[in-house]
Amino acid sequence: MAEKKRIFLMRHAKPELPGDGRIYYGQTDYPLCAAGAAAAKEVGSYLSGRIKFDYLYTSGMTRAVQTAALVAPYLEPAAERSLREINLGEWEGKGYDEVREEFKEIYEARGVKFAETAPPGGESFFELQGRTVPAFKKIISSHESGNILIVAHGAAIWSIAAYYFGFDLNDMFFFPQDYCGIHVAEEACGRLRLCRYNWSPSLQL
């Protein structure tokens, strides 16, 4: 086991989305597409022999569980449901253009106050952060050392990164989080230090 504690926050691989993929899918439970599975397997192959994970957590959603199985097949993942993706309510499964037309008022309001505006029946980013951060704290406080891999979702991971590293929740789209992208953090002086942001096998770890 690694002597120090390192946390690897990984976004799931690309899911199999209907149509052209331009939809809001939040908590809709799509599996990985073939290209996504191949990408996750590539990450696992690259990390094999370089980093061995000691603990594995997922959101419990299919695309996260499948990604985790391809990256760290030697570990049994623990599911932490509070790390599930943001709930987009009535927008789930609808296309971008459809939402823009059908929910014009709330769509425009969300464009102005992104972090605090929720789709009908869904969550705001502040509400999302209210469940992801406590779950993340519980995970990292459960282990004194070791490499901890957490496979979750773009918005869920962003809400955690914003809390710990001082990002504005409204700025999510200015900080890309690719499919299979990994943020690496270490504990330092009672805080978390961000060592890598959105790492992939094409970059040196």
Q: Classify the beta-strand content into a percent band.
A: 15-25%
Pairing-aware structural class of the strands and helices? Answer: alpha/beta
N- to C-terminal separation? 19 Å
What is the ordering of alpha helices and beta strands?
A: EHEHEHHHEHEE
Q: Indicate the radius of gyration in whole angstroms.
A: 17 Å
Task: Describe this entry's structure for a reader.
The chain is an alpha/beta fold and 205 residues long. The protein has 6 helices and 6 strands, in the order E-H-E-H-E-H-H-H-E-H-E-E. The chain has helices spanning 34-47, 62-71, 96-102, 104-112, 125-141, 154-165; strands spanning 5-11, 55-58, 78-79, 146-152, 182-188, 191-199. A 6-stranded mixed β-sheet has the order 3-2-4-1-5-6. Strand 5 and strand 6 (191-199) form a beta hairpin. Helix 1 runs parallel beside helix 2 (62-71) and helix 5 crosses helix 6. The protein is globular and about 50 Å long. The model has no long low-confidence stretch (mean pLDDT 95).
